Structure formats: C-alpha cells, structure tokens
Amino acid sequence: MDLFKAFGGKSNSKDIAKERLQLLLVHDRIDTSPRFLEMIKEDILNVISNYVDIDEKGLRVEITKERKSDDTFISALHANIPIKKMKQVIR
Amino acid sequence: MKEAIVITSGKGGVGKTTTTANIGTYLAMKGYKVALVDTDIGLRNLDVVMGLENRIVYDIVDVVEGQCRLKQALIRDKRFDTLYLLPAAQTRDKTAVTPEQMRKLIQDLKEEFDYILVDCPAGIEQGFKNAIAGADRAIVVTTPEVAAVRDADRIIGLLEAAELHNPLLVINRIKMDMVKRGDMMDIEDIIDILAIDLLGVIPDDENIIISTNKGEPIVLDEKSLASQAYRNLVERFLDRNVPLINLDVGNGFMDRLRRLFKMA
C-alpha cells in the first residue's frame, strides 16, 4: 500500500497513458488492421483446442518488443493461452 | 568520425528544431565543425531558432538544382565560426528534393564537416524520406505524451525498415513535478514502451521560449537547467559512459520523506 498515494492525492493518470499506449502500439506495430490479431487468435484457438481445453476469454495475443542478449531489439508474437484442462483422448 | 545524424519525431511540435539547434551549437562550442541542414521545405524554422533568418540568400533547393555552389548557400553562425546552416527553401515543397540528391548533398558536406545534423520535417512522407536519406544515425525526439510517444514508435519502425538501426531517444519537455504526482510518464515508462537507448532528457523550461524569442540556442546560457540538460545530452552522444543528468532537484519536505521511504 502506497501511503503517499492515499494521503498525497496521487491521481496516476500516467498509468492510464502507459496502458493506452501499450494497447495502441500492439496494433500500430504490426502495421495491419486489428483484424489481423483476431485472425491469428482464431487459428491458434482452433489448433490448440484439439489438444487442450482453453479459456477463450483469457486468450491474449500481442506483438511486443524485446531486448536480446546482444542489445538489439526484436519484435515477438506473444500468445498467452490459459489452459482449463488437458484433453484425455490425445494424451 | 564524419557522421550525418537525422533528428526526427513523427509528430510535429515536440522540439526537433530546438534539439537540432542546441546539439549543433554545443558541438560547435566544443570545437567540432558542424553543418545544420533544414529539410523542412516550405516550413523552415531552423534559421529562426538559430537567429540567422536575415542572412539567407540561397537554400537547399538552389544547391541541389545547381543554382549555386554548396558553399554559397551555407550560412556561417554569428557566434561560432565552425557552425553553418543550410536553410530549407520556403517557397517550394517537399518534392523539390529527392532522396538521391540528399545522399549526394550529405556526401559533399562530409568533406567539410565533422557532424551534419539534419532537421527532419514532421510526418512520414516525402520530407521524412528525404531527411533520412544519407543519414548514418537517427535521433528520435518525443515528449511524455501518448500521441508523441505513439508517433515516435511509428518512426522507430520506419527507421528500422530504412536500415537506420539503433536510433537514440531524446525525451523533451519533461515536468518532474508532474512525474512525481504520477501525472506524467517517467523516463522508465517511455523507455519501456519504445525499447530504444536513451540519449538525453530535457526538462520543460520557460527559458527555451525566451532564448528562441531572441534567436539564441539555450546551450549558450549556462545557468538554465535545459541548457545543462542539452550539454549533458551532447556529452552522452560523444561518450555513452557519461551519466544522465539528474533533473529531480526537488528537496522539499515531501521529497525527503519519500526518499526516506524509498518511494521516489
């Protein structure tokens, strides 16, 4: 608990700015329509759900920028796929 | 050693021209031979920020069209004799110069100068393409605002696509009191998002407007914090081991209390 937030009246609009930017840039960076990520999402969903039950609402796909060990930056496609349970049949 | 650096931002009004003028002036103060090139054809302003607007005879378009020699168009600074300005044309548009002509121009300038600083127009069209042609490195200027950071990110992508790798970031007009209140993105927030190396941070400072009113780059005035920040930026440009200037000079009761609790 940040004592100064409670008493100092911090409004933290910068967190809102940062969050909005991060979301905005996901789309800007791939330089395509927001539909692009939706299409990837759907295809990932179709393939993975043959093997596991996944939480469709929790599925997140985004493009991020990461620093590599040699200090250059690369774009990466990150998919966060929450698993409900493994499908018995396949295992 | 000879290097052409383009100063760009995407969004207009974030301080490209002021940054170009100050980096160039301080490099010249340090004894380097510097050429400032204004590529904002139709909306030139570097001449005004440098206070050299009354000395323009020829411009960049005259040079590339062969109307005059390069040396005739270069205006020598009032204060430093190793500092020159090649002004943009005011009555033409961005298509008056091609990227090939720019590359040739930069090559020619490299014969005379140590550093060529190219002030890029806002936007991502022809003017931007001209400005980055022939550049060896890029400096991206942004302010701690959503729109400016977004455009900076777009520019970084375009620079990468044009094979201008590892651009350096300048965060302009930061207000430390707003950062402390949590109402302005901090240096770390912006670096986090843009993921490029930080060159320098310039505080929001009224003195910049005062110096621009007079046509004198602020680095000439040692006292102001913005001037020190620009000097620090240039020192870091020349040697990346130079630590970043500390702009957080607040020493009120709350500042000390926060430090005590390691919150600031």
TrEMBL record, chain B:
Sequence ranges assigned to domain CobQ/CobB/MinD/ParA nucleotide binding in this UniProt record: 5-218
GO BP of this protein: division septum assembly; negative regulation of cell division
Keyword Transport: no
GO function term, MF aspect, one: ATP hydrolysis activity
The keyword Phosphoprotein appears for this protein: no
Pfam families, per the entry: CbiA
Annotated gene: minD
Residues that bind ATP: 11-18
Task of the protein: ATPase required for the correct placement of the division site. Cell division inhibitors MinC and MinD act in concert to form an inhibitor capable of blocking formation of the polar Z ring septums. Rapidly oscillates between the poles of the cell to destabilize FtsZ filaments that have formed before they mature into polar Z rings.
Key words, A-Z: ATP-binding, Cell cycle, Cell division, Nucleotide-binding, Septation
Protein name as annotated: Septum site-determining protein MinD
GO cellular component: cytoplasmic side of plasma membrane; cytosol
Protein family per UniProt: Belongs to the ParA family. MinD subfamily.
